[in-house]
Amino acid sequence: MKHDIEQYYETVLGITREAGKIIKEGIARTKNVDTKLGSWDLVTQYDRRVEKVLVAEISKKFPSHKFIAEETNSEQKTTPELTSAPTWVIDPIDGTTNFVHGFHLTCISIALSIEKEVVIGIVYNPILEQMFTAIKGRGAYLNNKRIYTSKVEELCQSMVCLESSFACIPSLRDSIMKRTEACIKVAHGIRVLGSAALALCYVAMGVAEAYHIDGLQCWDVAAGALIVREAGGVVLDSTGGIFDMMSHRILACGTKTLAEELVMLFKKADASLITNNNINHI
Ligand code: IPD
Ligand code: CA
Ligand code: CA
Ligand code: CA
């Protein structure tokens, strides 16, 4: 089947901009906050409303398209599965905790996958009026201006974006803390932004050199990963293997050399954890 990617892109760009108004109006208002998997995993009436509008408006235009959307998945407790059909992968508000606190790093992240390949990525922060976009093979843009990743190749000259949310989960905490400690010891600095999609876009525009987290969902990273690649960066599995947005692991860097250094650093951090655990059991 022939797909008009340009038409899909232009149509959903307009729908996303419209839905962004809900976030802009809501960020300073009272939110009804529910907790899902833990204190770090919040959802509000605004998340649900943005998702409903996006799905309804896109379905009107493209009735045969499918959806993988965060809040619908959470409510139905389904494991997201990608098919070859045109599928919109939607995070209605990425950075919900930021949104709840009125913290301006919050966005809509939406990607289109065709034949299991992401071909459109849109990340829109309506508070800061930042519209990050990419169509596969045609570059990455911020507000229609081309963006490129940083060409820094050494961790000691880099700014690294990490996450802390999963450190609330005991089974993940030690690994997150060890890898964070390893980055802190070498990098210019680490930043925890609270929005995976925006952190990936900041790598794409070259103001951060790397982004890493294990534990995310496809809707957190689908759009941002394409935007990084189209900006000239590399996106890998955090073990150094091929990136799969359904695998929950991601490492995005401006350069391949920096990615290789970070993969080695993470392997050493994890190995030290195993050694410590073995020693602790003696
Ligand atoms: C969260 C953000 C955050 C990450 C969390 C995600 P949400 O997405 O991407 O940066 O650390 O793990 O759940 O819940 O705000 O859409
Ligand atoms: Ca969430
Ligand atoms: Ca998210
Ligand atoms: Ca979300």
TrEMBL record:
<keyword id="KW-0479">Metal-binding</keyword>
<keyword id="KW-0460">Magnesium</keyword>
<dbReference type="InterPro" id="IPR000760">
    <property type="entry name" value="Inositol_monophosphatase-like"/>
</dbReference>
<dbReference type="InterPro" id="IPR033942">
    <property type="entry name" value="IMPase"/>
</dbReference>
<dbReference type="InterPro" id="IPR020552">
    <property type="entry name" value="Inositol_monoPase_Li-sen"/>
</dbReference>
<dbReference type="Pfam" id="PF00459">
    <property type="entry name" value="Inositol_P"/>
</dbReference>
<keyword id="KW-0378">Hydrolase</keyword>
<comment type="similarity">
    <text>Belongs to the inositol monophosphatase superfamily.</text>
</comment>
<protein>
    <recommendedName>
        <fullName>Inositol-1-monophosphatase</fullName>
        <ecNumber>3.1.3.25</ecNumber>
    </recommendedName>
</protein>
<dbReference type="InterPro" id="IPR020550">
    <property type="entry name" value="Inositol_monophosphatase_CS"/>
</dbReference>
<dbReference type="InterPro" id="IPR020583">
    <property type="entry name" value="Inositol_monoP_metal-BS"/>
</dbReference>
<comment type="pathway">
    <text>Polyol metabolism; myo-inositol biosynthesis; myo-inositol from D-glucose 6-phosphate: step 2/2.</text>
</comment>
